[in-house]
Design brief:
alpha/beta, Rossmann fold, six-stranded mixed β-sheet, two-stranded antiparallel sheet, 7 helices, globular
Length: 209
């Protein structure tokens, strides 16, 4: 079993990913979705969080061996980012969605210096909007973002376009298709469910209407 398959299997096993086409979930965007992914649950399972930490660390050591700082996107990737930074013995910062309205009014929290190179840790990629806001904040600070590493991506075309437009390299541990295939093999979903799940991914904004 490769990394993508093992990651998907782990997320399904701990119910970080839930699938239900008959009673779909509603996202903040208003989209109706037969899938909901809550990767924060991985933190409650030592073996799963250690696996994710080690896979992230291996990717960074291979692709960005000389990176200066690890950054986590608030709030979902703060813990994962800190774990990876500890594993790699690198400094860690995290990036808020927006600047604070009080105190130091920081958006980037932690010790960071202009000109440093950064790899961003994210838990989930949907459209990529919030993830790329973190990249913008780091670049505005004067840092060079080497790339982003995420646990899971839905693989939407709009996300691919958004990352390309910002010139950000994205590496993921697992993706939507792998997740669905693993769910089918494990008996979580039927063949009919798989077809419905594939249809949703093609047009999530209109699915179920």
């Amino acid at each position: 079993m490769n990394t993508a398959e093992k990651t998907a299997e782990s997320l399904l096993k701990i119910q970080a990913v839930k699938l239900n086409k008959n009673n779909p979930f509603t996202w903040a965007s208003g989209w109706k979705s037969p899938i909901y992914c809550d990767n924060r649950k991985t933190l409650s399972y030592p073996d799963v969080r250690a696996f994710i930490r080690d896979e992230f660390a291996a990717i960074i050591e291979k692709l960005y061996p000389n990176v200066d700082v690890i950054a986590g996107v608030a709030t979902g990737a703060i813990a994962n980012g800190a774990l990876v930074a500890e594993k790699l013995n690198k400094p860690f910062v995290y990036v808020r969605p927006d600047k604070k309205s009080h105190g130091m009014k920081n958006q980037v929290e932690g010790a960071l210096t202009e000109g440093q190179t950064v790899v961003v840790i994210e838990d989930l990629i949907s459209t990529g909007g919030s993830s790329l806001k973190a990249v913008d904040a780091l670049r505005d600070f004067g840092c060079k973002v080497e790339g982003m590493v995420a646990i899971f991506s839905y693989g939407f075309v709009v996300a691919e376009e958004n990352f390309q437009s910002k010139d950000v390299d994205l590496t993921i541990l697992t993706d939507y298709n792998t997740m669905i295939n693993q769910a089918k093999e494990a008996g979580y979903v039927s063949n009919d469910d798989v077809e419905s799940l594939k249809e949703w991914r093609l047009s999530p904004s209109t699915w179920g209407k």
